[in-house]
């Protein structure tokens, strides 16, 4: 059966080098909700490359608006969490360019943490140290305490996409470790890693809610569109209102 998105269409602006995000979002969204995608240039993780992704934001937003989405999402964790107010600026630019409601990955992450009442968390990322540190600073600027974390030091979407599931699961366990007592959630960050299939098993083994970038974005976008419930099997978050 072909799913044309008769309940909703959600537009996603994604990094050009990302090989994972489209497959995961299609799996995370329920029947009747169709994602549509436009890419913006991003292959690496340098500060210059991350900020350059926004140079043609309005042009890309107008293109995806032609498909008539109910919501346009800028979906890149490292860019939307680059600075405390970055997501608000991105969504304001999209809304001004298209007249459509907009969201960013950073919005979804904060909303997911709020849904769990999680003020203290651990952070696992595949990122370079500078990108990881900016994400910690972003979370803490929004009232969250990052108790511990782990990172892999990878620079490109291609490297991140190639990570095997067992390595990602170990990264999550390393992030929790013994140095983070009292953690209320684990955030496995990045839209470019194959994290969605790991969520349920990690929640069971770690005893904590597990949030990922793609899962949080799917959940948040659905709620913004007035749709409750996502695809089953991808963690506790998808069942929250």
Write a concise keyword list for the protein shown above.
18% strand, globular, alpha/beta, four-stranded parallel sheet, 241 residues, 11 helices, Rossmann fold, 2 domains
**CATH class of the largest domain, please?**
Alpha Beta
For the record, the CATH architecture of the largest domain stands as: 3-Layer(aba) Sandwich
Oligomeric status of the shown chains? single chain
Shape: globular
CATH topology of the largest domain: Rossmann fold
Average pLDDT:
96
Tell me roughly what share of residues is in helical segments: 40-55%
- Our Rg estimate from Cα atoms comes to 16 Å
Q: Which strands sit side by side, in order, in the main sheet?
A: 2-1-3-4
Distance between the termini: 28 Å
Provide a count of the helices.
11
Give the beta-strand count.
8
Structural class: alpha/beta
Order of helices and strands: EHEHHEHHEHEHEHHEHEH
Domain module tally: 2
Outline the biggest β-sheet: 4 strands, parallel
**What low-confidence regions span 5 or more consecutive residues with pLDDT below 50?**
none
Structure description:
The chain is of the alpha/beta class and 241 residues long. It folds into 2 domains: 8-105 and 215-233, 3-Layer(aba) Sandwich (Rossmann fold), CATH 3.40.50.12500; 108-213, Rossmann fold. The protein is 42% helix and 18% strand. It has 11 helices and 8 strands. The strands form 2 sheets. It has a 4-stranded parallel sheet, with helices on both faces. The protein is globular and about 50 Å long. The protein starts with 7 loop residues before the first strand and ends in a 17-residue tail after the last helix. The model has no long low-confidence stretch (mean pLDDT 96).
């Amino acid at each position: 059966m072909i799913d044309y998105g008769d309940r909703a269409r959600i537009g996603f602006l994604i990094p050009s080098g990302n090989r994972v995000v489209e497959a995961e979002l299609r799996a995370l969204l329920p029947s009747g909700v169709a994602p549509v995608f436009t890419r913006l240039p991003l292959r690496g993780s340098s500060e210059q490359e991350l900020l350059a992704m926004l140079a043609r934001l309005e042009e890309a937003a107008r293109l995806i608006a032609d498909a008539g989405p109910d919501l346009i999402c800028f979906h890149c964790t490292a860019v939307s969490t680059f600075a405390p107010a970055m997501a608000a600026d991105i969504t304001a630019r999209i809304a001004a360019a298209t007249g459509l409601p907009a969201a960013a990955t950073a919005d979804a992450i904060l909303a997911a943490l709020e849904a769990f009442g999680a003020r203290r968390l651990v952070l696992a990322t595949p990122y370079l140290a500078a990108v990881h540190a900016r994400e910690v600073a972003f979370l803490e600027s929004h009232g969250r305490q990052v108790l511990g974390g782990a990172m892999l030091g990878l620079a490109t979407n291609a490297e991140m996409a190639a990570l095997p599931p067992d390595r990602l699961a170990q990264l999550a366990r390393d992030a929790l470790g013994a140095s983070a007592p009292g953690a209320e959630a684990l955030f496995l960050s990045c839209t470019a890693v194959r994290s969605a299939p790991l969520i349920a098993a990690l929640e069971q083994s770690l005893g904590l809610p597990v949030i990922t970038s793609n899962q949080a974005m799917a959940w948040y976008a659905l709620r913004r569109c007035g749709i409750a419930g996502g695809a089953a099997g991808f963690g506790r978050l998808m069942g929250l209102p």
